[in-house]
Predict the 3D structure of the following.
Amino acid sequence: MLKIKPVVISGREVLPIVEGGKGIGVTSGVTSGAFAAAGAVGTFSGVNADSMDENGNLVDYVYKGATRKERHEELIDLSIKGALYQAKTAYEISGGKGRIHMNILWEMGGAERVLHGVLEKAKGMINGVTCGAGMPYRIAEIAEHYKVYYYPIVSSMRAFRALWKRAYHKMSNFLGAVVYEDPWLAGGHNGLSNSEDPAKPEDPFPRVSELRRFMNEVGLSHIPIIMAGGVWALKDWENWLDNPEIGPIAFQFGTRPILTKESPVSDEWKKKLLTLKNGDVYLNRFSPTGFYSSAVENDFIRELQGREERQIPYLIEPHGELVVPFPVGPRKRPVYVTAEDKEKAEFWLAKGFDEAMKTPDSTLIFVTKDKSEQIRFDQIDCMGCLSACRFSNWSTNENFSTGKKTDPRSYCIQKTLQKVVHGNDVENQLMFSGHNAYKFSEDPFYANGFIPTVQQLVDRIMTGE
C-alpha cells in the first residue's frame, strides 16, 4: 500500500490531489466543486470563464466594440462576471469541503484587473489563486490584500528563486505551495527556457529536489510542492512520498479530469481522448504567446505545420543569393528570393496555396486564399485576450501594440479555445492536452469507454492507480 498522506493546502488538510486549472472553460465551477466535495482541491479557470443568464443560458463572448481597446474592456467585464459565476457554482457544490482555487494566466490580457474584480466580490468562496504563464511577481501582493493563498507555477528552481528574491520574500504568509510544472509533459503552455532542449525531456526528480533545497534554505520547508505535468497514477511517484529530498508533496492532475462526467467538454472531445496513442500530443511553438505548448495532433495543428513548411526567406532589395524577383500582394510588387525558393513557391501556388503572406522574420508563407482571409479577419477582430500577442500585435501597453508586424504563422487563441470547448469540432480547433493522454486507451479503468464521475476518479487516484 502506498503511504498517501493528506497535505495542508490553503489552510486546510486535504487529499494530495489538485485539479489542474485548464482555460478556457475546461475546468469549471462544476468540476472544481466536485473535486472539493471529494476532499481534494478543485481549480476553476478564471481565463475568460463562462457565465449563465437568469434563464440558465450560456452568455456568449460577443463583442460590440469597434476598436480593439473597446473589445478588450468588454472581455475583461465578461471574464470577471464569468469567474464570479464559476466561483459561486464551485462553492455551492463543494458543500464546505476541500479547497477551491482559481487559475489565471499572468500573460492574459488584463490579468490583474480580472483578479481584483473577482476576489473583491468572491470573498469566502475562493481559497487560493494559481498563476502561471509568465512571471507573476505581483500575485503575492494581490493575494495578501484579499487574504487568499497564492500558488505560482514554475518549471525550474531558478524561476522560483527569481520570484522569491524580487517579491515573494516580502509577502510569504500566503504562499500556499509552489507548483512545479514539467515543461516537457504538461498540457497547454509550457515553461521551457531557451537553454532547455524541447526534444530532450529531463527527469523531474532532480529538478524538484533542487527546488526543495532552495525552499529549505529560505525557510519554506513546511510549504508543499505540487507536482504537475505528466502525473497519471500516484504509484508512479512512490519514491517521492515521505522523501526528505522532496518534502511535503501534492500532485496536480490536468488531463484525467477532462474525462469525467462533470467535465464540460463535448462528447466528441472525450471520445477523442480515448483513442489517442503515444506521440499524438507533442510540443509546438505556434501559440501567439510565443511559449511552447502541448496539443493533440489534429487538422488544426497540421494546417499550422503546413504554414511553417511552406515558408521561404525574402528581401526587399536583391542581395547575395536572394536576387530572383517574386511578385507579392495585390499590386504584385517584387521581393527577392533564391532561384531554388522561387521554384518551391511556384509549386505551392500551383497546389492552390496562392496567397503569400509576410512574417516579421522576413519570410513568406503560402496559404490558400480562404485561409489568408480568415487570418487577416482574426487579426483585425482581435479582442486583446493576451498581454502581448504575436499573431495580432496587440499589447496592453499604452500604445496597444507590440510594435512588431503581425505573424500569420500563429492563430487567434481566444476564438479557437472558445470554439473547441463550446462546440464539437475537435479536428479543426486547438485541443490542449498533457502528453500522458494516450494512457486513456491503455488504462483498464477506462475500458469499454467508461467515463467516471469526479468522485470515482478521486477514489481511483487514491488507490495509487
In short: Residues 18 and 252 are 4 Å apart (CA to CA). The mean pLDDT is 94. DSSP finds twelve helices and 18 strands in the chain.
